[in-house]
Amino acid sequence: MTDSPALSAAPSVAVIVVAAGSGSRLGHAEPKAFVPLQMRPLLERALDSIFRMREAVQIIVVAPSDRLTYARGIAAQVAARHEAPVSTNRPASGPAASPSRTVTIVGGGRTRQDSVDRGMSALIPSIDIVLVHDAARALTPAALCDEVVAAVRSTGHGIIPGLPLVDTIKRIANSGAILGTVDRSELSAVQTPQGFPRSMLAEAHTWAAQNGRFEALTDDAALVADAGLPVSVIPGHQLAFKITTPEDLARAELILQAALGEPQPQILPRIGTGLDVHAFAADDTTELWLAGLHWPGERGLSGHSDGDVACHAICDALLGAAGLGDIGSVFGTADPRFTGAHGETFLTETVRLVAAAGYLIGNVSVQIIGNRPKFSPRRGEAETRLAGILSAPVNIGATTTDTLGFTGRSEGVAATATALVYPAPRAGRFAGQVAAPAPLPEPGQTPDLNWEA
User: Hey, what's the torsion of the CAs at 219, 223, 228, 230, to 10 degrees?
Assistant: First the structure.
């Protein structure tokens, strides 16, 4: 794709997307930014809007430290749609780190302002305007982001979007008694993105840190104003509401459904299951690979590849859900290229095949069955590793069979997996209509293994 003139130079605008909050009021186990809205995470929808801004921007996603790989996968999917790169969580610097549009992932802090601070540390030198945006405001139009940038440029100070209050506001006592009516003409319900000259936001952060104001000020505009710097309000947008409660999420679902038009074919997900079993190797030199991780000091599993039963079961489940056969028919054991191949190799190619068949991965659940290794200490590490490969949530459980069967006798390990996939939205067709599945490799052909490159 040829860059337009507006995208040809290093960007002067950055958008810090705060996605590190827990979102406990939303009632989901995962952090709010990763809760699905119409089967796409809130973070993905927020990034899609930012990528539609008129000019080049540096995008910095501040995500929970245990979700960095997952956040990077989401950003990679959005960037691929818009043909843009995704960088590591290292602060960018120098000309090589300043293409027309990038996404950088950094770990969040204990508070919102800590997270914004970390996002600012990743700004590239060319940035002179910074927008701070909530991933939870996933439906915010790109036009509102552009209007905030334009207002910062024209005024030279902080800008926040806001909406007038329509309800009558009362001051009440603890007992519930009405104390008076507030003049709502002086009030505004503020939104994000909130925009500032870079130097002004940096000055306000320094002032707040020196005066112990980070804990008291949870809003970026309040932080800037508290430092004695000017901030103005411009008209906001009804779609820039914050998704905080289950009711907010339901409202966003209804808005998206209405935007698709009527009638809407029903989007039906597909479910697949997988099972894999491997015995322990006869010698002590075979390394153990399980759930995408290396387990030093543990006897490995025998097999043509690395014997990772969890990864192989996931492949079976995904291939089955997408109607693409099973791991044996797609990755034959007779192919010498798979000798000793790790589970990541199979998962990466399976993800490609599922996408080519017109599906996105919703989530995957895995159950590992065996006496060893002791899995619970590395459960989170394994879930993060596999979620990063699949760009989808992964839950892993582990259990034993109470000495029954070959797993109970410590002769091997088994794993079962369940995967949910759903039709990927495609331009030019209704949601719910699925593209024709990608054909399986013909006899004598092999999958596209990009690990060979």
Answer: -40
Residues 409 and 279: their CA atoms lie apart, in Å, by 11
Is residue 97 within 8 Å of residue 87, measured between CB atoms? yes
**Which residue in this structure is represented by tokens 């034993």?**
400
What pTM does this model have?
0.65
Calpha distance 388→236 (Å, rounded): 35
**Run means of pLDDT, 10 residues per run, the chain, 453 residues:** 47 94 75 86 93 92 89 86 60 37 87 91 95 96 96 96 90 89 88 96 91 79 92 95 91 82 63 94 88 90 85 95 86 67 88 88 94 91 91 92 90 95 60 39 41 28
| Location of structure tokens 């909130």 | 194
pLDDT digits (tens, 9 = 90+) for 33-92: 988 888 789 999 999 999 999 988 999 999 998 888 889 888 888 888 876 656 544 433
3-state secondary structure string across the chain: CCCCHHHCCCCCEEEEEECCCCCHHHCCCCCHHHCEECCEEHHHHHHHHHHCCCCCEEEEEEECHHHHHHHHHHHHHHHHHCCCCECCCCCCCCHHHCCCCEEEEEECCCCHHHHHHHHHCCCCCCCCEEEEEECCCCCCCHHHHHHHHHHHHHHCCEEEEEEECCCCEEEECCCCCEEEEECHHHCEEECCCEEEEHHHHHHHHHHHHHCCCCCCCCCHHHHHHHCCCCEEEEECCHHHCCCCCHHHHHHHHHHHHHHHCCCCCCCCCEEEEEEEEEEECCCCCCEEEECCEEEEEEECECCCCCCCHHHHHHHHHHHHHCCCCCHHHHCCCCCHHHCCCCHHHHHHHHHHHHHHCCEEEEEEEEEEECCCCCCHHHHHHHHHHHHHHHCCCEEEEEECCCCCHHHHCCCEEEEEEEEEEEECCCCCCCCCCCCCCCCCCCCCCCCCCHHHC
